[in-house]
Write a structure and sequence with these properties.
Elements (H helix, E strand, L loop, with lengths): L1 E5 L4 H13 L3 E5 L7 H6 L7 E4 L2 E4 L1 H11 L10 H22 L3 H6 L5 H21 L13 H21 L3 H4 L5 H8 L2 H15 L4
Parallel strand pairs: 1-2
Antiparallel strand pairs: 1-3, 3-4
Helix pairs in contact: 1-3, 1-7, 1-10, 4-6, 4-7, 7-9
Length: 215
C-alpha cells in the first residue's frame, strides 16, 4: 500500500491526497512535519520537502512527479485527458497555478499565516509579479465549470489546494485579494469542488489538523 507522507495543512500534500481519494487508491498517511532532519526522510525527500510517497519500489518526492506516477499506475478514473494536447494544457495550467501564482504568493505566508513580517520591498515585488502573472493565469483557466474545462483533472487538485492561499495571503498582507482584483472570481469554483466527497475529506482532515494542539 502507498504511504503519503507530510501533513494535512500543506497545499501540496492536499493536492496529492485529493488525487488519491478521487481515484479511490488505498493509501496510508504518515505525519511528517517540517523541518525534516531524519535521515530516512531526507533519503526519500532530499530537499526536506513534503509531500513524499513511500512505495513498494522506493520513495518518490515532488508533488507533480507523484501525480504523474499516480496517473500512470492508477489510470481510472483519469485525471488527465486522453488527448495529448489537452493533457499538456492541464499540465500547463498546473505550472501557472503553482509556479507563477502560489510560489510567488508564498513569500507573503510568513506574515499572512504565521505572525511574521514581510518587508515593504518584498510586498511590492510580490504585488508586481502577481499583477503580471494573475491575468496570464486568467487567460488559461476556464472554470467551465472546472479549471481546465468540463472534466475534473489534476489542474483542479492544484487549484483547489492553492488558489485560496493566494487569495488569503494577498488579502492579509497587501490589503486586497489580487485574484478577485484581477477579475478572477474563483470562490464559486472552490465551492463547487468542495462539494466532491474527496474534497470534503481533505477539508475535514485539514480542519482537524489545524485544531490539534502542537506537540
Amino acid at each position: 500500500m502507498l504511504t503519503l507522507c507530510g501533513f494535512p495543512i500543506s497545499n501540496y500534500y492536499n493536492k496529492v491526497k485529493l488525487a488519491l481519494l478521487e481515484k479511490g487508491v488505498p493509501f496510508r498517511e504518515e505525519v511528517v512535519t517540517l523541518p525534516i532532519s531524519d535521515e530516512a526522510a531526507l533519503a526519500a525527500s532530499p530537499l526536506g520537502k513534503i509531500p513524499f510517497l513511500r512505495l513498494p519500489e522506493g520513495e518518490l518526492c515532488e508533488s507533480q512527479a507523484i501525480m504523474e506516477y499516480i496517473e500512470a499506475a492508477y489510470p481510472a478514473p483519469p485525471l488527465l485527458p486522453a488527448d495529448p494536447f489537452a493533457a499538456a494544457k492541464v499540465r500547463e495550467l498546473i505550472t501557472f497555478t503553482e509556479l507563477h501564482l502560489e510560489l510567488v504568493a508564498r513569500e507573503l505566508y510568513g506574515q499572512a499565516f504565521f505572525g511574521g513580517t514581510v518587508s515593504d520591498a518584498t510586498q511590492a515585488r510580490v504585488r508586481r509579479q502577481l499583477e503580471k502573472n494573475i491575468p496570464a493565469f486568467g487567460r488559461l483557466a476556464k472554470f467551465s465549470p472546472y479549471a481546465a474545462g468540463e472534466q475534473f483533472t489534476q489542474a483542479d487538485c492544484a487549484a483547489f489546494a492553492s488558489l485560496p492561499l493566494v487569495g488569503m495571503a494577498t488579502k492579509a498582507v497587501l490589503g486586497e485579494d489580487l485574484l478577485l482584483a484581477a477579475g478572477i472570481d474563483y470562490k464559486p469554483y472552490i465551492r463547487l469542488v468542495s462539494e466532491r466527497p474527496a474534497a470534503q475529506k481533505v477539508l475535514a482532515d485539514r480542519k482537524a489538523s489545524q485544531a490539534r494542539p502542537a506537540a
